[in-house]
Write a structure and sequence with these properties.
With about 425 residues, the chain is an alpha/beta fold. It has 3 domains: about 160 residues, Adenylosuccinate Synthetase, subunit A, domain 1 (Adenylosuccinate Synthetase, Chain A, domain 1, 3-Layer(aba) Sandwich); about 100 residues, Adenylosuccinate Synthetase, subunit A, domain 2; about 160 residues, Alpha-Beta Complex (Adenylosuccinate Synthetase, Chain A, domain 3), CATH 3.90.170.10. Helices cover about 35% and strands about 20% of the residues. It has 12 helices and 20 strands. The strands form 5 sheets. Strands 9-7-5-2-10-1-11-15-19-20 form a 10-stranded mixed sheet, sandwiched between helices. Strands 14, 16, 17 and 18 form a 4-stranded mixed sheet that branches. A hairpin with a 2-residue loop joins strand 16 and strand 17. The chain is globular. Bound molecules: guanosine-5'-diphosphate, 6-O-phosphoryl inosine monophosphate and magnesium ion. Magnesium ion (MG) binds next to loops.
């Protein structure tokens, strides 16, 4: 049975969780590989809306193994809150396992995230992070001073690491960021001891579980968080997150080799959104942008911030296909574009008098890019449609043009937030 990696092909919030939920029906194992509770993944089933941040979106199907991989940064308070919320709704979480190698988000990471953003905001240079401590936690990982889940179960080692970190972080908060907040290492040690006890039955070596599942022929789904243009290496740096949302990130974040992946599915919206700061060539500042925001309920799942909205950008689409080796695309939220006389697709950028087709590296160059648009006829209400054949010809044309421009087939089309509002295109 195949393994499938599902990633965001734009700036996040493409509807990855909806696709994961749909694919989970036939899967045995669902794995989160990177990011943390900066992610906000929404699944709508039977008039109930579930929002996941760290727990894989496959948990709603009983009996599926749900894994939080080594590449994820785990806020224990956050994941325990999610577990409690699901248990209160009668959902079984005994199949949830978290990696002993994953790094822990600590209280000082969140304080540093806030302090740094506040300082940078004075010059208008803040990134617009989710303030969940994600950047500082990955910084500690790269700097080799991070604390991992396995450390929770070696009390002395854990205490020592917390004490060492608190000393440095308190100094940074006070002397670099001019903050009053200071942390008490002993208090953190005691609090995390409680978390350790509650999480103990969930902690395993997820790399072994994944490898054995694949060897046994089970279907394993890898659930990406964030999106391609938020990738630390390939995104609109520095307006990115601190992990690797592209398919390659799944290999590292789950501890598997690239030969173990069969399908790479990129999730796109029929338009584009972005939360937080940073460049966005096709952003709309007019009534159409407002209309897409309202119709698509484009407000952040984690922070509630209004999402910036713009036309579909095929330059970004091609970039995602190329950098993730996509084999399929799920195109969501086509229903949101209803009742527009014309819809636009960005087919290239005009840059220094030339048309370019590849997404530039430099933000300064990107600022000089003007989108080149192609206009297509719009469509009406489609949220009730369940087969490709029934879709209006204008939607079929839109799908075909996107496939042609980005160089990858579209195999699923979203016409609404619910599980059943997904059209599978057999090709
Ligand atoms: P994720 O982070 O990629 O999982 O996406 P989010 O959950 O943050 O945001 C996607 C939003 O769009 C959620 O509210 C979904 O319920 C909703 N959604 C997903 N697919 C569709 C679709 O095809 N049409 C509509 N109208 N909404 C959708
Ligand atoms: P899902 O998985 C959209 C954005 C933040 C900010 C930047 C850095 O729901 O698609 P961070 O807190 O990660 O340091 O913030 O990344 N961001 C997301 N935007 N969807 C997400 O996740 C995001 N996770 C982070 O808004 O611009
Ligand atoms: Mg989201």
């Amino acid at each position: 049975m195949p393994t499938k990696v599902v990633i965001g092909a734009q700036w996040g919030d493409e509807g990855k969780a909806k696709i994961i939920d749909i694919l989970s029906e036939k899967a045995d194992v669902v794995v989160r590989c990177q990011g943390g509770n900066n992610a906000g993944h929404t699944v709508a089933v039977n008039n109930e809306v579930y929002k996941f941040q760290l727990i894989p979106s496959g948990i709603l199907y009983p009996g599926k193994t749900c894994l939080v991989g080594n590449g994820v940064v785990i806020d224990p308070e956050g994941i325990l809150g999610e577990i409690d919320g699901l248990v209160a709704k009668g959902i079984d979480v005994s199949t949830l396992k978290i990696s002993s190698r994953a790094h822990l988000v600590m209280p000082y990471h969140k304080a540093l995230d806030k302090a740094k953003e506040a300082l940078k905001a004075k010059d208008g240079k803040d990134i617009g992070t989710t303030m969940k401590g994600i950047g500082p936690c990955y910084m500690d990982k790269a700097e080799r001073s991070g604390i991992r889940v396995c450390d929770l179960y070696h009390e002395e080692v854990f205490a020592e690491k917390v004490r060492e970190n608190v000393k440095i972080k308190n100094a940074m908060l006070k002397f670099v960021y001019d903050q009053d907040v200071q942390f008490d290492a002993e208090e953190i040690i005691a609090t995390y001891k409680g978390y350790a006890e509650r999480l103990k039955s969930h902690v395993i070596d997820t790399t072994v579980e994944i490898y054995e599942s694949i060897k046994e022929g089970k279907e394993v789904l890898f659930e990406g968080a964030q999106g391609t243009l938020l990738d630390l290496d390939l995104g609109t740096y520095p307006y990115v997150t601190s992990s690797h949302p592209i398919t390659g990130g799944a290999c590292i974040g789950a501890g598997i080799g690239p030969t173990m992946i069969d399908e790479c599915i990129g999730v796109m919206k029929g338009y584009i959104t972005r939360v937080g700061k940073g460049p966005f060539p096709t952003e709309l500042f007019d009534a159409t942008g407002d209309r897409i925001r309202e119709e698509g309920h484009e407000f952040g799942t984690v922070t509630g911030r209004p999402r910036r909205c713009g036309w579909f950008d095929a330059v970004i689409g091609e970039f995602a296909v190329r950098t993730s080796g996509l084999t399929q695309i799920a195109l969501n939220k086509i229903d949101v574009l209803k009742d527009l006389e014309k819809v636009k697709i960005c087919v290239g950028y005009e840059f220094n008098g030339e048309i370019i087709k590849h997404f530039p590296a430099s933000l300064e160059d990107l600022e000089k890019c003007t989108p080149v648009y192609e206009e297509m006829d719009g469509w009406g209400e489609i949220s009730h449609i369940r087969t490709y054949e029934e879709l209006p010809q204008t939607v079929k044309n839109y799908i075909a043009r996107i496939e042609e421009l980005v160089g990858c087939k579209i195999t699923m089309v979203g016409v609404g937030p619910n599980r059943e509002q997904n059209i599978v295109i057999e090709k």
